[in-house]
Amino acid sequence: MVAAPNINDPAFLENPFPFYELGRAMSPLILPERGLAMVFGYDDATAILKDWETWSSRFPPPPEVTDPPEPMMLSSDPPRHTRLRSLVSQAFTPRMVEQLEPRIREITRELLAPALEAGECDLVAALAYPLPVIVIAEILGIPPEDRAKFKEWSDEAVASLGTALGGSGRQIRAEVFEEMREYFTRMTEERRQRPRNDLISGLVQAEQDGERLTFADLLQMLVLLLVAGNETTTNLISNTMLSFLEHPGELAKVAAEPARIPGAIEEVLRYNSPVQATVRRPTRDVEVHGKTIPANLPTVVWLAAANRDPAQFPEPLRFDVERSPNRHLAFGLGIHFCLGAPLARLEARVAYEELLGAATGFERTTEGMLPRVPTFIMRGVLELPIAFRRR
Ligand code: HEM
């Protein structure tokens, strides 16, 4: 029996991979005394994510909550999930997202200009954090002066993510939730009066077209888009630089041939997955490798462990920007497959086309462990000070 590690400990967050190796050998780990089960293998993870009828995304609210709201898309099953997803999926198709490329490039150039001038920056503060916030804010139709608020709200919501799984996370503070609610109430009122060409107006429209989307649903959708899209993409952009710094030979290949950037980003998604795990609830007793996971026991699906499963990925510990095929699970699979995947891929590609096109000689300017995003669900650093030379 492996002693379950403290999954929010900084050392674990720095290097969770030995735990995944151990776990894979024993998968599934069923720990009723800790109130959870865990799976680590690629085949198990894919089977679970594809079978939403057996493996629900919906968790019963705690008994003290008397009038629970309907769950958000990410935490709902069909038919509710299907209905909610159809309302927003139009805005995030690869075709829709492609149209954003010139604007994303413009924002990226503006953000990078002072860093290129200085020859150094904290990559998180300079680019990886602001880029996705500005882009999603523009898609939704949120004015620039309110962006700083989003960072606060997004951080708050991410900090609350670990709670359900016994992490050090906590509930969203009531006053912050109230602030978000008031803000979005005002935004949607404005759009109801004067619709614009933005996603909030589209969602308000859907709400007006009958019973399809309640105000509570709309609010949850906005929060979900902010939370799901910001921190994850920030981590993808900074994890890409970290992976390059650790593997200079791979960076040199990509810098020499920018057409390799998309492949490199897929490899970062596999090797340093921004979202390490998700969770499902078995709706009945389920047998996995001869062991029974009892009905309703929350089951952690370690996407990051599946992404290093040698049965699926030859030499899984090798960071290989030319890996093909690379069917990683970093964006999930099945009906909840990441809605924002085309957008996240585009932002990361443009970020590195610009960065590698303008600079070379990247190196870290600090030593030792970098401060990490404090939840095991995410993999990312809070700061990444680097230096470089202009090309
Ligand atoms: C690198 C960046 C990103 C990563 C690694 C990521 C990862 C994921 C994963 C693993 C899931 C599935 C969770 C599950 O099955 O339980 C998911 C779902 C989702 N993601 Fe992302 N995501 C990223 C960026 C984004 C962006 C930019 C947006 C929006 C603009 C977004 C919106 C969503 C939404 C709305 C869902 C729920 C979909 C559903 O329930 O049908 N994500 N994401």
Automatic annotation (TrEMBL):
Pfam family, one: p450
Keywords assigned by UniProt, alphabetized: Heme, Iron, Metal-binding, Monooxygenase, Oxidoreductase
InterPro entries hit by this protein: Cyt_P450, Cyt_P450_B, Cyt_P450_CS, Cyt_P450_sf
Family membership: Belongs to the cytochrome P450 family.
Record's protein name: Cytochrome P450
The species this protein was found in: Tepidiforma flava
